[in-house]
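User: Second chain of the day. Same drill as before.
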Amino acid sequence: MSSVRKPFKTHYDALGLPPPPESDDVSPVEIKQAYHNSLLLYHPDKAQDLPDGYSSAELLDAVIAAYTVLSVPRTRRVYDQSLLLHTVGSATGSVAAFAAATENAETVDLDDLDHIEICTVHNSLDDYLRGIAAPDAACLADKHCNFIEVWSRSCRCGNIRGYVVTDELLEQLLDAQEEQGGRTDGGELLTQCTGCSSWIKIAFELSG
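Assistant: Same format as last time:
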């Protein structure tokens, strides 16, 4: 996983929106409006007093990446699940209820999941989930392309890519663990199937 600087803690921060569960009722229209507002806010001709010394280009890249994920209900759901689990400590509801729902979750190794790099300029995570995205060799020579790493696994409900993890979600888990004095070299990511109520634990270790 890369160690690129991140100007915002979450995608919601990048768009000036509250994180879940406060953002649960935010509509796609409101997300699109927040996206356009952020584009204007960090435009090179308008931006002033940029946060923490970040360039306008870095901020705009973060805004575009945020909108790519949050504008699609399916990918937003995947993102929200991991964000809630590892910044709050449990999904919405009581810790006891969450523990009961996940206590029998199977543990699998990240290396055993299908892996792909997706160019978010020419494809989207939702395209991949629907089986219509593939690596584009032409993207490798395009300096404007932005790649994300995606791991997936089928679920017993029949969803071929029911469990989905991105490099960004893993990095967010590590950030949350570090803030709590925990591990920074690996961990376990609890992930719910996008098509049913099943959960798995995805164990991973950082290489090097």
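The first strand starts at residue 106 and ends at 109.

User: Great, on to the next one.
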